[in-house]
Amino acid sequence: MYTKHIVPIISYGKYARVFINFLSESSYNSDILCYFRILKKRWHLKSEELLTEIDSALEMCQNQGIYYLLLSNKLEVLRALDRALLTQQVYEILKKEYHKIPIPYRVIIGQSLDMTTSSYTQNNLTKFRSWSDLHREDEVDIAVSLKAKARAFLKRGEVKRASKIFLEASEHASKYPHPTSIVSGFNNASWYLRKEDLETSYQIAKQLAWHCGYWFDDPVVLMNYLDTILVIAVMAKAYKFF
Amino acid sequence: MLCNYYKKLRIIEPACKKEYHDSIQLAKKHFKIAFNKGNRTDEVANRKGLQTFLNEQIKIPRRFSRIHGLSHTSLYRILNGDMKFVKVETLKGIFTALNVTFSFKNPKVVNHILSLMNEKDYFQNHWQRINRFSAFKVKSLFLKSFMTNVVLNEINLSEWFDLTDSDRKKLNEFIRKDVARIAFFNRAFQLAFDDDTIHPFYKARYTLVNQLFSEMGAMRHITLLMRLYSSIKSAEKLEQLNVYFRQYVRYSTTPWRFDVEDVLSERFSDPNYAKISRFCKKINISEMFGYLCTWEFEEEERKSFLKMFLS
């Protein structure tokens, strides 16, 4: 298996876990194995130890594509740990060296940069890019971009519009399908709308519950979304939905 | 939904407890727990909340007990807290007379009793319909419901299957004895025939299970699956099976944007492959996706899953 062939697999996010578990046992490429190990740890818990592990993997890495994937993983861990300065540094490196990233890896790394600009409010990061035709073909990339757009509306206080765009993002993610993006779209749409339009928020929460049941089994993952479902059920006085 | 997930929340791994503290508190506040004496399910503790609730609803106890044929002394002792534990049946009588409905404002014990009343009524109203079905159809309903469930340790499928095959009257008595069994029976019925009353979370899971059963098709394949489920006693292992089959439907129906066959080309060198493939053929599911989904589990967990799956 060529290293670049892992890109369409990992683009499904955590949903690709069974493939990654299989390939972790059947692949002999040390760069791929190291990347899979880090990816699985990142899905489980973003920690300081993981950052150290990514740094040592970056030093050992021979493959250019995997190197940038590792760097984008580092960016996501830093963002989750709220390490503002380092986040900005890694973001700038990836942005500056974007042209050096092998073509098959660009879309997925671009998504990571897009998510950083939209969700990280600590610093004023310069916007990553405008769309190219290559990116438009990818439903997950469209979903990421729509989420960034929705967050911009949220910042301006336009909650209803933001909620609508979050739902659009879910629709695009469903076409892929990318379960984490599908569910997080419904989750955000319902959560932010709850104070402005409880009835619509409640209807979206029902769809959220359906998608949680369809796509996820792990109770720890479900906890994130259960919180939204519980709070909205209480607000809507929908005891049976509780 | 929450009543099931609350049980999971309580045993969530410690690392996540802090992160989900608010959800756990919210769940605790509303979860339908009855405070039983020595875990008895026919009594609940007469706490302040219940007393206040009843005192607000019953303005003139003497008149209320006379109109509804309740013992005035018992009612008085409940209202002023002299009775520390109250029979569920007594409260059911009071709530029926008061026409109480579900509300987040009710003390959770009130909602708990209301839920017991609803479940019992639902069971009585729908038992006859299920009772007319063949043993295979009833067992399929039970298995589908089990594969949709969150909490598995309250139901022993093997007992349910045996009684369905041997004696329906005994099955009815067996179900009526336990609230968890009544709820399980009702869920099985609702999922199949009354899905407007089902939480969307379970509806989605049921969609997956239905797809699996459609693919398996013939009775002989589904019977094998029933045998597999009834041979396993551990709730943890049954959960693994449920996850495996749900993942199977998800993965086998996803239009992947890469060649799955190509990615899994090394699968034939797995020493377990032949056995997994044989089992998949027996239950009539795709060998490739059936094999792939065994990778839902890693290392020791996969070994133990395969041991159970292929036993």
Structural summary, described in words:
The complex is a heterodimer of chains A (242) and B (311). Chain A is mainly α and 242 residues long. Chain A is 73% helix and 0% strand. The mean pLDDT of chain A is 90. Chain B is mostly helical and 311 residues long. Helices cover 68% and strands 2% of the residues of chain B. Chain B is built from 19 helices and 2 strands. Chain B has a two-stranded antiparallel sheet. In chain B, helix 9 runs antiparallel to helix 10, helix 9 packs across helix 12 and helix 13 packs across helix 15. The model of chain B has no long low-confidence stretch (mean pLDDT 89). Classes of the chains: A mainly alpha (242), B mainly alpha (311). Chains A and B meet through helix 2, helix 12 and helix 13 of A and helix 1, helix 3, helix 13 and helix 15 of B.
Short description:
Chain A is mainly alpha-helical and 242 residues long. Chain A contains 13 helices and no strands.
What key attributes describe this structure?
heterodimer, A: 242 residues, mainly alpha, globular, B: 311 residues, two-stranded antiparallel sheet, 19 helices, 68% helix, elongated
Shape type of chain A: globular
Biggest sheet strand order of chain B reads: 1-2
User: What's the average pLDDT of chain B?
Assistant: 89
Structural class of chain B, by secondary structure, is mainly alpha
Biggest β-sheet strands, sense, barrel of chain A? none
Mean pLDDT of chain A: 90
Largest contact between protein chains?
A: A-B, 40 and 50 residues
Helix-strand topology string of chain B: HHHEHHHEHHHHHHHHHHHHH
Question: What is the helical fraction of chain B, as a range of percent?
Answer: 55-70%
Strand content of chain B: under 5%
Number of strands of chain A: 0
- Strand coverage percent of chain A: under 5%
| Uncertain spans of chain B | none
Describe the SSE topology:
The complex is a heterodimer of chains A (242) and B (311).
Chain A: H1 7-10, H2 17-26, H3 30-44, H4 48-60, H5 64-80, H6 84-96, H7 103-119, H8 133-136, H9 139-155, H10 159-175, H11 179-193, H12 198-215, H13 219-235
Helix pairs in contact in A: 2-3, 3-4, 3-5, 4-5, 5-6, 5-7, 7-9, 9-10, 10-11, 11-12, 12-13
Chain B: H1 2-10, H2 14-17, H3 21-30, E1 43-45, H4 48-57, H5 61-67, H6 72-79, E2 85-87, H7 88-98, H8 108-131, H9 135-148, H10 157-166, H11 168-176, H12 179-193, H13 200-216, H14 219-231, H15 235-253, H16 260-263, H17 273-282, H18 287-292, H19 299-309
Antiparallel strand pairs in B: 1-2
